[in-house]
Design brief:
Blueprint (H helix, E strand, L loop, with lengths): L7 E6 L2 E10 L4 H12 L7 E11 L1 H16 L4 E4 L4 H10 L7 E2 L2 H18 L7
Parallel strand pairs: 2-3, 3-4, 4-5
Antiparallel strand pairs: 1-2
Organism: Streptomyces typhae
InterPro entries: STAS_dom, STAS_dom_sf
Protein name: STAS domain-containing protein
């Protein structure tokens, strides 16, 4: 899925759904952002979701709410959800002021984030009860 403005897109890298938010996102982008994250959540060809915020220059509380809801939905589905930077100053400040840095799984780069998703998958598999492992 790619929007006309191309501020949000979804790709796959190393069996990870990568949702990229770029430029400025606000209230008008909520439905598209929610849809992209929902599609990533239900993509059975991938092991988890990485939200790439390295190109995001502005996000408001509406987008933060979208991210937090996606985080909760991924937790409910037992599916890794990792955010990746580097985070621009406005985005980093939004995370710091709201305290979500203690809640969300943050990585410094997309590459680190992809590794983190795979690590979380491996950890979940290792801790699963014996009869549920494949």
């Amino acid at each position: 899925m790619v929007s006309d403005r191309q501020s949000i897109d979804v790709t796959r890298q190393q069996r990870v759904a990568v949702v990229s938010f770029r430029d400025e996102l606000d209230l008008k982008d909520t439905a598209e952002a929610t849809l992209a994250l929902s599609r990533a959540l239900t993509d059975t060809s991938t092991a988890g979701t990485l939200l790439d915020l390295s190109g995001l220059t502005f996000a408001d509380s509406t987008q933060l709410n979208v991210i937090l809801r996606a985080h909760a939905e991924h937790q409910d589905a037992l599916r890794p959800f990792v955010l990746a930077g580097p985070y621009r100053s406005g985005v980093a400040r939004l995370f710091e002021v709201t305290g979500v840095t203690d809640v969300l799984d943050l990585s410094d780069t997309v590459e680190d984030g992809i590794r983190r998703v795979h690590l979380l998958c491996d950890t979940a598999r290792a801790s699963a009860p014996e009869d549920t492992r494949h």
